[in-house]
Amino acid sequence: MGNEVFKSRGLLVSLEGIDGCGKSTQVELLHSRLEQSRIIYLSVREPGGTAVGEGIRQTLLQTSYALSAETELLLYMAARSELCRQVIIPTLLQGRMVLCDRFTDSTLAYQGYGGGVDLLWIDQLNRKVTGGRLPDLTFLLDLPVEKAAARRGNNPDRMEKKDLRFHSRVREGYLDIARRNPERVVVLDADVTEEELCSELWRTLVPHLVGLAEMRKGHEF
Ligand SMILES: Nc1ncnc2c1ncn2[C@@H]1O[C@H](COP(=O)(O)OP(=O)(O)OP(=O)(O)O)[C@@H](O)[C@H]1O
Ligand SMILES: [Mg+2]
Question: Per-domain residue ranges for the chain?
Fold first, then answer.
């Protein structure tokens, strides 16, 4: 694909990984690097970002009873559909970058590999609700489940076996997604300092920023 075409398509980047692996921390750290490089970008977090999406977020957070994995999946997909149509796709069409703290792979990893929902069904829904615009680049921040639990403030020794098993399935699911999509997914060892991880991420991201609408002419990274 030539640069001109690429430019008009913008750049869709997602950060993925189990709870507590450090995604939101990296979004914060990337913010200053992107600012310094004069890249205007949009940062989104799912579910949310639209009126309907925020309502769904509240529903998912406030639900005291356990939802079935299918119901959860469809709620996330409804929020994603709105976010893609109203926010993500229009921004990409302006030739800009969109940074997603979790996106399509989270649904595959959690509801699919973790919750046992049919992976093919999730994949089809992901393609429908995104209008076929899957991420150009995905960073998988990989961390052992015990270490992620400790970062979340949970004592790994006291974590329920069920919880550990679920998160292990999600982690393995993510690694399987990476193996199946080597052209898109970059696996990073998240068991390093925040700054080390950010430098690694930035090194991979920079070549993809070339040609974006907001890059200052002649700027050196
Ligand atoms: N590289 C790191 N080394 C040690 N601690 C870290 C590192 N990155 C993040 N943390 C800490 O781990 C905790 C979880 O980080 P963060 O909230 O960024 O994870 P997350 O992937 O966004 O989690 P969630 O999926 O639950 O939103 C925070 O307290 C954060 O300060
Ligand atoms: Mg987070």
Answer: 3-209
Q: Where are the alpha helices (DSSP H) in 84-191?
A: 89-93, 104-107, 119-129, 145-151, 161-180
C-beta atoms surrounding 84 within 10 Å: 24
113-146 burial, b if ≥16 CB within 10 A, otherwise e?
bbbebebeebeebbeebbeebbbbbbbbbbbbbb
Confidence at 212, pLDDT banded by 50, 70, 90: confident
For ligand 1, what atom is nearest to the CA of residue 18? 25
Q: Is there a cis peptide before residue 207, judged by omega within 30 degrees of 0?
A: no
Q: From atom 1 of ligand 1, which residue's Cα is the shortest distance away?
A: 194
In this structure, are residues 26 and 100 in contact, taking their beta carbons and an 8 Å threshold? no
State pTM to two decimals.
0.92
Q: What gap in Å lies between CA 187 and CA 206, rounded to an integer?
A: 16
Instruction: Tell me which CATH homologous superfamily contains domain 3-209.
Output: P-loop containing nucleotide triphosphate hydrolases (3.40.50.300)
Residues within 6 Å of ligand 1 by CB: 17, 19-25, 151, 193-194, 197
Q: CA-CA distance, 175 to 184, in Å (whole number)? A: 13
Looking at all shown ligands, the one closest to residue 23's CA atom is 1
Q: If you take atom 28 of ligand 1, which residue's CA is the nearest one?
A: 151
**6 vs 112, which has greater pLDDT?**
112
Whether the CB-CB separation of 130 and 53 falls below 8 Å is answered with no
Q: What is the DSSP letter of 20?
A: T
